[in-house]
Design a protein that fits this description.
alpha+beta; Double Stranded RNA Binding Domain; DNA polymerase, domain 1; four-stranded antiparallel sheet; 10 helices; 4 strands
Length: 228
């Protein structure tokens, strides 16, 4: 059975060699020194091999490899090929659309008042697209969202930060309802942890005033309303 000490002491040889762990899990050590966790199995009359990941910095631990082995065995029991499922996941991630693309779909397809749509587009274009627009949904973490909302609050626009979080929440919900297998980062960033508002009148910040004027221009208010 493998241990972390044994894994750290494995040395490359002239040819690839294998060292067994338990329950069918083993590591393959290449001449270049790469150590990867693998599992051989039979399904639908075929012999297949699935690679769980590499050991070491930037890879997975022995404990994680054993967890993935258990998951693979459950797949096999259900008649699914772990190797093929892994390949499909890679294709899904590669072909997945970006946050910006999903946000556009949400804005077009979600039922909301035109004024609300205009305001949310403004937040999307100004706050979210510069940071997340070209990232895939699976790449954005709650830490990323937290850092963004914190930066907006530091700028003096807490209401905008809360609004940005709400847009992210809705975009992910829209995508998840349409088959995207991702975690919603906004669910771990609660509005009350972004900013707290006192129940009293206050002056708008320069950022919020600018946002308000852009919003008014977009929804086509009359001159009398603007003057007010």
């Amino acid at each position: 059975m493998l241990t972390d000490t044994k894994l750290r002491n494995l040395k490359p040889q002239d040819k690839l060699y294998k060292v067994n762990d338990r329950d069918g899990l083993y590591v393959a050590v290449t001449p270049a020194g790469s150590i990867s966790f693998r599992y051989n199995y039979a399904i639908h009359g075929r012999q297949e091999t699935v690679t769980f990941g590499r050991y070491g910095v930037g890879g997975i631990t022995l404990a994680e490899a054993r967890e993935r082995l258990n998951e693979a065995k459950k797949m096999i029991a259900a008649g699914k090929s772990p190797a093929k499922e892994k390949a499909r996941d890679k294709v899904r991630i590669k072909d997945a659309e970006t946050f910006g693309a999903w946000a556009e779909k949400w804005l077009r397809g979600y039922q909301m008042a035109d004024s609300t749509r205009d305001m949310r587009r403004l937040v999307l274009e100004r706050e979210l697209k510069p940071k997340f627009g070209n990232q895939k949904l699976v790449e954005i973490t709650h830490e990323d969202l937290r850092a963004l909302t914190d930066a907006i609050v530091e700028r003096g626009a807490p209401a905008t930060a809360v609004h940005a979080r709400e847009v992210v929440l809705q975009v992910y919900r829209w995508a998840i309802e349409r088959g995207q297998k991702v975690e919603n980062p906004a669910e771990l960033v609660r509005p009350t942890t972004i900013a707290k508002f006192e129940p009293r009148d206050r002056a708008l910040t320069p950022d919020e005033i600018g946002l308000m004027y852009q919003y008014m221009e977009r929804i086509g208010t009359t001159p009398s309303i603007r003057a007010a």
